Amino acid sequence: MDKYKYLRTAAVLRDLLGGTDNIASLTHCVTRLRLTLTDRARVDDTALRDHPAVLGVLERDTFQIVVGPAAVAQLTAALAQFLADA
Q1: By three-state DSSP, how is residue 86 classified?
Q2: 59 and 34 in contact (C-beta within 8 Å)?
Q3: How far apart are alpha carbons 17 and 39 in whole angstroms?
Q4: Is 29 a catalytic residue?
Q5: What is the rounded distance in angstroms from the CA atom of residue 22 to the CA atom of residue 74?
Q6: Rounded to the nearest 10 degrees, how much is the dihedral formed by the CA atoms of 18, 21, 26, 31?
Q7: Alpha-carbon distance 70 to 15, whole Å?
Q8: What's the average model confidence in pLDDT over 38-51?
Q9: Which of these, 7, 24, 54, 86, could form a disulfide with 36 (CB 3.0-4.6 Å)?
Q10: Catalytic member of 8, 21, 24, 29
Q11: What is the pLDDT of residue 69?
């Protein structure tokens, strides 16, 4: 098992979301990353939706990326680490 898989995926997602400074808050539910973005226009929608880890994108009260139950906690932790390091 590749222990850096989720870290690499989170790095790509971070960039597609416009960078760490564009992510105001991050949490998750059972299957989705839930984010509050600073500037929605900075998101690369096409590349984000085309990424193999992304099962879907929803916009409700938060910007939501469906990644599935097997990956959501690990991706949230990896993204949170990027935010903490910024």
Answers
A1: coil
A2: no
A3: 9
A4: yes
A5: 20
A6: 20
A7: 22
A8: 97
A9: 24
A10: 29
A11: 96
